[in-house]
Amino acid sequence: MARSHVHEPGNFWIRVCELLFYPASRLLARRRFTGIDRLAIPGGQLIVANHISHLDPLYDAVFVRKSGRIPHIMAKSSLWKIPVVGRALAGTDQIPVDRSGSGAGQASVDAATQALLDGKVVLIYPEGSVTKEPDFWPMKPKPGVAALALAGDFPVVPVVHWGTQQIYDSYAPKRKFKPLPRKDVQVIAGPPIDLSPWRGKPVDARAIRDVSFLIMGTIRDMLAEVRGELPPNELFDPKKAARKSATGKSSATGDSSAAGDGSTGR
After folding, report:
1. Beta carbons within 8 Å of 57's beta carbon, 6+ residues apart
2. Is the dihedral of CA 132, 55, 164, 68 positive or negative?
3. Where are the domains of the chain?
4. Do 124 and 194 form a contact (C-beta atoms < 8 A)?
5. Positive or negative CA dihedral for 92, 65, 141, 179?
6. What average pLDDT does range 13-28 have in this prediction?
7. Confidence class of residue 107 from pLDDT cuts 50, 70 and 90?
């Protein structure tokens, strides 16, 4: 099916970001963009992407903008408090996500839903943060992604990137930033995810769970194809991993204490 090219005119802040982001993304890596044409259509679109580095939004913003659309990325609200950065985020109409709890995040879901209904492109990282999976595979998704995906009848486009983690490893204890030697960064948009089984039906807890895992599973499988590797059977659960680590440390401490008592006795 032929797709109509669209171009959304940018304001002052959009043009400033273009002047900064385009050369920066080229300077840091060799960009390898695939599937931009999938985004070059009018109307609301929800882009769902994996998150492997804090550099991802830079490349995602350029990727979406090269399609002619303006990205509206959901990001943690604390960024709006940073001088200049906050002005740019507000000026480009990005969407702040309040992580303080007690239902505060619902405002960001409502804002993103309205943006989609207004025909805008919204980008969300379903994991909610940079993945903590040791090999950069996706984590379990947050339920907000399914709520957005089922909020209206618009395309839900999966996007994966690979390579940004080699430039900036968000959780590395030392030398997080490694721009040299210059690396490849791949950004790939896949076909829209088929959510027709859930369209027009009540959005209950089961639908939220099934759709969120369908979305994240699709992203994982796309990433596996890009990497040329078999993905894990299960999505990484950071809470479960933390409990397992704590249990292991507790057992090790107990064993060490027991060994100490024995050696003292001898």
Report:
1. 73, 75
2. positive
3. 12-261
4. no
5. negative
6. 97
7. confident
The DSSP secondary structure of 27-75, one letter per residue, reads HHEEEEEE-GGGT-SSS-EEEEE---STTHHHHHHHHHHTTT--EEEEE
Looking at every residue in the chain, the average pLDDT score rounds to 90
Q: 99: closest CA among 121, 82, 74, 117?
A: 74
The CA distance from 103 to 33, in Å, is: 37
| CB of 192 closer than 8 Å to CB of 43 | no
Residue 252 has pLDDT above 60, yes or no: no
Q: What angle do CA 249, 253, 254 make, to 5 degrees?
A: 120
Residue closest to 52 by CA, chosen among 152, 143, 187, 241:
187
Exposure of 6 in the CB half-sphere (CA atoms within 13 A): 18
- CATH dotted code for 12-261: 3.40.1130
Tokens of 227: 């990497």
User: CA 197, CA 210: separation in Å to the nearest integer?
Assistant: 11
Pairing between strand 156-162 and 183-189? Answer: antiparallel
Q: Which of 187, 224, 196 is nearest to 71 (CA)?
A: 187
* Pairwise CA distance, residues 143 & 222, whole Å: 21
- Cα 159 to Cα 171: distance, rounded to the nearest angstrom: 22
Residues in a beta bridge with 72: 122
Q: What's residue 263's pLDDT?
A: 42
Residue with tokens 């940018």: 10
Residue 221: which H helix or E strand, with range?
helix 205-227
pLDDT tens across 128-140, in order? 999 999 999 999 9
Would you give the end-to-end CA distance of the chain in angstroms? 81
